[in-house]
Amino acid sequence: MGIRFAPGVKALFGSSCEAYEGDLLKIIVGVSGASGAIYPLRLLERLRRNPATEVHLILSRAAEKTLFLETGRKAADLKALAHYSWPLEDIAAPLASGSFQTAGMVIAPCSIHTMSAICCGISSNLMIRAADVVLKERRRLILMVRETPFHLGHLRTMTSLAEMGAIIAPPIPGFYNRPATIEDLVDSSIERVLDLLGVPDAAIRRWNGPAEKALRGRFGENRTDSAKSDLNMNEDERMDEE
Ligand SMILES: Cc1cc2nc3c(=O)[nH]c(=O)nc-3n(C[C@H](O)[C@H](O)[C@H](O)COP(=O)(O)O)c2cc1C
């Protein structure tokens, strides 16, 4: 799937994005009522700052409830972060048609209810319909399914969706970048989603090998080559000792 950005966007990301020059990257963000309202908040803040993206938001009723219970925020706070916000009942919205071209959709977090409805093609609201459209058009559908533990039915549903082409991306944090805050943990999942959507973001933290990780811990962000070689030497020495 080709990704295109608005003219001029290339300049913001450097010459490596030459192939991406073109239209804005239209991304649908669905928010359902699973636990983890902080995920769409962090994701939308990140996408809003990114001049390459145009964000279309759909929020379920249960999502509004969990958002308030978990963060004290209201639906309007999330909507303010999106370029467009579509009512769940608006089944005539552009997102309900395959002719409205998007780069893909992420549901963050994705409840078992919404996941199961997508799997069965029960397009009873705009979020589920939009996901169905993304699947049928062979676009990217990323589901941040959140529940624990999973029973066999949940696992089978996820398998079916993966077979249909969806990407099952539960919000399971990585610890290799040494998270210090809840936001760090959340961002470790959000950044993988940005990568999956093809969103260019220079702030995405990447694993650069154990030496880099240890350097961040010992020297902060101001790494120097001499510090790096010093660390490598010490690591080699440590390994020799072991
Ligand atoms: C505080 C809270 C936390 C919840 N956490 C989850 C969860 O992690 N996963 C899940 O599938 N449902 C969870 N639910 C239940 C869903 O909100 C419920 O199944 C709802 O019908 C989902 O609707 P939706 O898919 O239309 O958003 C939670 C509900 C509440 C109130």
In short:
The protein is built from ten helices and six strands. It is of the alpha/beta class and 242 residues long. The longest helix is centred in the last third of the chain and has 17 residues.
Mean pLDDT: 85
Provide the domain count: 2
Oligomer: single chain
Largest sheet: 6 strands, parallel
Could you please describe the fold and organization of this structure?
This protein is of the alpha/beta class and 242 residues long. The protein has two domains: 9-197, Flavin prenyltransferase-like (Rossmann fold, 3-Layer(aba) Sandwich); 210-241, no CATH class. It is 45% helix and 13% strand. The protein has ten helices and six strands; from the N terminus they run H-E-H-E-H-H-E-E-H-H-E-H-E-H-H-H. It has helices at 9-13, 38-48, 61-71, 75-79, 112-120, 126-136, 152-164, 182-197, 210-219, 225-241, and strands at residues 25-31, 53-59, 84-86, 104-110, 140-145, 167-168. It has a six-stranded parallel β-sheet, sandwiched between helices. Strand 1 (25-31), helix 2 and strand 2 (53-59) form a beta-alpha-beta unit. The longest helix has 17 residues, at 225-241. It is globular, with a radius of gyration of 20 Å. Residues 32-35, 60, 62-63, 65-66, 69, 111-114, 146-147 line the site of flavin mononucleotide.
